[in-house]
Amino acid sequence: MRLHGFLIGQTETLLADVLKFTGPADAATSRFFREHPKLGHAERGVIAEAVFAVLRRRMEFAHLAESGTGSPTRRLTLLGLMATAGRGAIRPFVSDAEANWLEHVAKIDPASLPLRQQLNLPDWIVKALETRFDAAELAQLAAALNYPAPLDLRANPIKASRDELLRSLSQAGIEGGETPFAPFGVRVTGKPALSKLDAFKDGWFEVQDEGSQLLCTLLAPRRGEMVVDFCAGAGGKTLALGAMMRSSGRLYAFDISEKRLAKLKPRLARSGLSNVNPVLIDSEHDAKIKRLIGKIDRVLVDAPCSGLGTLRRNPDLKWRQSPESIAELAPKQLSILTSAARLLKRGGRLVYATCSILEAENEAVVKQFLDAHPDFALVSARDVLADQRVDLDTGDYFSLWPHRHATDGFFAAVLERRGDAQPKTKKAKAEATPEEAAAAGETADAIAKAQQPEAAEPDAALE
Questions:
Q1: Hey, which bits of 16-172 come out as E strands?
Q2: Cα(44)–Cα(130) distance, rounded to whole angstroms?
């Protein structure tokens, strides 16, 4: 679309609000667009892309904006628009002084800037990553984190195969191809309006990063099993697990947020799954969880984390998180993992996962857990993926990196409770506690009654 001066002012207004860092940038952006309903789809795209470009390259742009005229926010806005819409698009709407400054800035080679500005990462994150990568690879990672993520979909095998989905997208004029690793993954070119497609309305696919899809492959749930998605959120992984189970068995989606679970409801309706039971809990110690202790075959713990693996989508997180917030997260992650582990039968599998790239939230938490629970053992992610015929080797731990795998940054550890499941004898059943007896005879509907969510808002990723 043709840029106009009005959009520059709107972009500057939104950027000034986002840079206060009082909340998530995507939430501030959605709120701004609701308050300005006359902005069209293309106009929203121009504004959002420019604001997020500033967030991704904030240190670099702030360095460049030390020169120039106008307010600092104005200069950052023009740099964001130049990076996304192009200098020619904004030239008619800026002063001669601003045009001359932009021409000067455009000639500066980013590689000539100080390393700190090139990386566009806070010093504390750089220090944490320097223990894992040499300087050259750290620069590659930073570059990958500072550009937008591709759009990945997961074909829903309950409704359509990946080939059928690709044909449907092609007929709608949308280019796409298979993702490198995930068996149901599709990577789409551009940012098409997917929610208008019949294939979306009919539940043929969900928007889901390939890395997130692979986490579900690590859990490898089987038909007829009892499975728990311990921190289900809006249910993207829940739906993937349910499809892998072919809508059989029982799949509990636990979360402490009614709003997040509410977003699962319309997605679940589209999916065609009948084995998913959303359950609102008050914490990882909720009585609804205690009733299932020792009864579950597989548990996915996608733990609350810093989200630093998703900087391609949420670049504001690197400016909103801090060493102090990470220090507060790790004990909570360990508590959640410990509580979820109690649900497993002997021989059951648990996958602890985060979308973080920091060892403090990942390997360190798993090590602490294993040191305190000798009845659990680490299973090689390499072997699990090979069993699932996924051609990907990240070692004993599952670690995905944007610069290596073109996915978000993900971590996972596959844990197994040692020993084979032993059926209870008649005597053991007779001596079971009331809580255990209730769990053994409990129907899926009984648990699902726990404050069912109301109707959800449209998925933000599809707007």
A1: 151-155
A2: 37
Distance of CA 3 to the CA centre of its chain: 32
In the predicted model, what is the mean pLDDT of residues 183-208?
95
pLDDT of residue 441 exceeding 80, the answer is: no
Written as one letter, the residue type at 299 is V
HEC string for 114-144: CHHHHHCCCHHHHHHHHCCCCHHHHHHHHHH
Binding residues for S-adenosyl-L-methionine: 255, 282, 302
Q: Is 216 a catalytic site residue?
A: no
CB atoms within 10 A of CB 358: 25
Q: Which of 216, 231, 305, 355 is catalytic?
A: 355
Q: Would you say 46 and 85 are in contact if contact means Cβ atoms under 8 Å apart? A: yes
Which CATH number characterizes residue 194's domain?
3.30.70.1170
Structural domain includes residue 145: no
DSSP for 412-445 reads EEEEEESS---PPPHHHHHT--HHHHHHHH--HH
Q: Are residues 222 and 194 in the same domain?
A: no
Asked if 391 and 202 touch (Cβ cutoff 8 Å), the reply is no
77, HSE (Cβ side, Cα atoms, 13 Å): 26
Give a yes or no: residue 139 inside a domain.
no
Residue 191 has φ and ψ, to the nearest 5°, of -130, 70
Rg (CA), the chain: 24
Per-residue pLDDT band for 448 (boundaries 50, 70, 90) equals very low
Specify whether 265 is located in the same domain as 387.
Answer: yes
In this structure, are 221 and 301 located in the same domain?
yes
Q: Is the pLDDT of residue 438 over 50?
A: no
- Angle, helix 72-84 to helix 96-106, in steps of 10 degrees: 60
CA angle 238/241/245 to nearest 5° reads 135
How many other C-beta atoms lie within 10 A of the C-beta of residue 392? Answer: 17
Residue 199 lies in domain: 151-207
> Which tens digits make up the pLDDT trace of 253-298?
999 999 989 999 999 999 999 999 999 989 888 888 889 999 999 9
Q: Identify whether residues 169 and 317 lie together within a single domain.
A: no
pLDDT-derived band at 419, boundaries 50, 70, 90: low
Cα 368 to chain centroid distance, Å, stands at: 24
- Cα–Cα nearest to 267, from 461, 447, 452, 456: 456
Mark which of 207, 225, 241 sits at the end of a domain: 207
Average pLDDT, the chain: 89
| HSE-CB for 284 with a 13 A CA cutoff | 20
Residue 362 counted as domain residue = yes
pLDDT digits (tens, 9 = 90+) for 24-41: 999 999 999 999 999 998
* 220 in the same domain as 200: no
